[in-house]
Design goal:
about 230 residues; 8-stranded mixed beta sheet; globular
């Protein structure tokens, strides 16, 4: 498993923690609005960051940085190598946040069993009936996603669910279905979409603030602490 991107300082990726963020390459999904297109489609074009360089940086920043966020792409494609690297990082005293799309529920369970993660943030792309369209894989079998959701809802590790809301993909009915799927979860965020040159496809539109707040009111019936992320209020 390689790291192909690195944001050395982040104040927003892990709430309440001064973090560094590592990006893995490769993803089984092809979400057309994904803003990390090189990591997903062209990982071979990206430089590989030497792992020893990362560890050396983390050793020098002990007592200054508090956490490491591992995102992608889809980090769980790294399998046991991901777990080994997480153990190294935990051994230096850092908290770890893992971003995942829920593609490998068995590995998520193993990561939790190994005690190497402090927060898992899982993307819920859309209502189950529209999942395939939203991730760019028609007729996608969502059983792995559903299994990952069910596992996180067991509450064995702190977690949050989140959805990047897009005008072309999400309706009030979809938000209602997502709410039923994750009902009772402690944290959920609907994130502002921004069209950018890094997206796999261009031309999608963000959900306007008024509509986003209607979505939020629907979601709060299921997750009272639900919030908007990236909107002004």
């Amino acid at each position: 498993m390689n790291f192909n991107g690195w944001e050395k300082l982040s104040l927003v990726d892990f709430d309440g923690n001064i973090s560094t963020t590592l990006f893995t390459s490769g993803c089984p999904f092809r979400c057309p609005y994904c803003h990390n297109s090189d990591l997903v489609l062209r990982p071979e074009s990206l430089p590989v960051i030497p792992y020893e360089e990362i560890l050396s940086f983390l050793k020098r920043r002990q007592g200054i940085l508090e956490a490491v966020c591992i995102t992608g792409g889809e980090p769980t494609l790294g399998g046991d190598d991901l777990i080994a690297k997480m153990k190294d990082i935990k051994g230096l005293g850092y908290k770890i946040k893992l971003d995942s799309n829920g593609f490998r529920p068995a590995l998520l369970r193993k990561i939790v069993d190994e005690g190497v993660v402090d927060l898992i943030a899982m993307d819920i792309k859309n209502s189950l009936k529209k999942y395939g369209m939203t991730i760019g894989i028609p007729n996608y079998d969502t059983s792995n996603v559903e299994e990952s959701i069910a596992f996180l809802k067991e509450g064995r590790v702190p977690y949050e669910f989140r959805t990047t809301i897009i005008d072309e993909f999400h309706t009030e009915e979809d938000i209602e279905e997502i709410g039923r799927l994750i009902e009772g979860s402690p944290r959920y965020a609907m994130q502002l979409y921004i069209d950018s040159e890094g997206c796999i496809e261009r031309g999608f539109h963000s959900v306007c603030g008024e509509k986003a707040h209607r979505f939020l009111e629907i979601m709060k019936r299921y997750v009272p602490s639900a919030k908007l992320r990236g909107y002004d209020d």
